[in-house]
Amino acid sequence: MGAERAAEKGENVKINLMFIRHGERTKKGELTDYGRQETMERAEISPLTQEEFDAVKSMGSPAGPKSTVEGSEIETMSRATETAHIFGSKIAELTGSEEFETRNRPALSFETVKNKMPYNHTAIYNSLLPENFETLSDEEKAVAAAKAQASTVNHLMNLDTPEAIAYKQEVAGAYSYTISHYAEMAERLKAGSKVLMPTGVHSPMMEVFLQKALVRKDAEGNAITGFTDVAEIGGEFGPSEGYSVNIETDENGQLKPLGISFSNEARPKGEMYLDPEAIKELADAYKELHKDEKIYQENPEVQA
Fold first, then answer.
1. 47 and 18 Cβ atoms separated by less than 8 Å
2. Residue 108 gets which letter from DSSP?
3. In 3D, which of 233, 196, 179, 164 has the Cα closest to residue 58?
4. Residues 267, 265: Cα–Cα separation, whole Å
5. pLDDT tens, residue by residue, 266-301
6. How far apart are CA 216 and CA 210, in angstroms?
7. At what angle do helices 33-45 and 79-95 cross, to 10 degrees?
8. pLDDT in tens, 199-241
9. Shortest CA distance to 300 belongs to which of 66, 12, 59, 56?
10. What H or E segment, with its residue span, contains residue 82?
């Protein structure tokens, strides 16, 4: 009987762990109505609406100011969690998924990083916005914010001080730990399960992770790990934009290579995946660093 139950779990499971940068924000870090609408529209035109999911499980970083969200399990949400909630709820609605929920994922928060942030992101970002930012239209604000974000992301990506190296290593570890957790989870889900997990996060944390673990194939088929300049992957991620880590098992329940794809069609295509050795090394380092903390002990389950 035990062997029979085991055979019913972990085979042909698919988890789409979709990291999404939060929507347009105010200078104080709050999600704007324009950002909410943009996220909704991205979900409506997403090719994910053509797929079938047993469950849609949204989650996100709880860092930053909170807004009240009606009809959710979490009374107030950060800009990142709310972005994932908006995207996930719309996909669940359009695909007819009967199981949907949203929860926080503290490991992906910039507030839980133990190594001190080697720069003041908010101060640099706000200093690059025009003085008349608040009087601009929503579209003009988006353009100005994109320019400020690009410079702020490049500032961190180019820092090579010991503090910056330690910070970026831990950030990449948080993502690796999260991915590793759900890769292990896939082996315990009901055979044939298909789960979408929109995950609200922050830039440049999401770029820092890819710099450590992304592997691409060039025209000659040579593997390229990471990148020197974020422009190599199409630049920094815009609001409500991101990438998917495709966690899949085969007919024997064995984990396939972790494929990755960008939601923006203008970004690189072709064969891309995560370096398994880098993921393990980064995740192990993160777990050791946070072994006595709640964010390590918290392992939200996926049921499908």
1. no
2. G
3. 196
4. 5
5. 999 889 999 999 999 999 999 999 988 876 665 556
6. 11
7. 30
8. 999 999 999 999 999 999 888 889 999 998 999 999 999 999 9
9. 59
10. helix 79-95
- One-letter amino acid at 71 equals G
Distance CA 199, CA 57 (A): 9
DSSP assignment of 131-158 equals TTGGGS-HHHHHHHHHHHHHHHHHHHHH
Of 234, 260, 261, 258, the residue nearest 248 (C-alpha) = 258
CB 191 within 8 A of CB 11: yes
CA 33 to chain centre: 21
Residue 201, token pair as written in the block: 């996060």
Its sign, for the CA torsion 154, 149, 243, 67, is positive
Alpha-carbon gap, residue 43 to 80, rounded angstroms: 15
* String of DSSP letters for 152-182: HHHHHHH--SHHHHHHHHHHHHHHHHHHHHH
126: its two tokens? 């706000």
b/e per residue 23-46 (b: at least 16 CB within 10 A): bbbeeeeebbebbbebbeebbeeb
Which burial class, exposed, middle or buried, applies to 169 when counting CB atoms under 10 A from its CB (0-12, 13-18, 19+)? middle
Class level of CATH domain 2-297: alpha beta
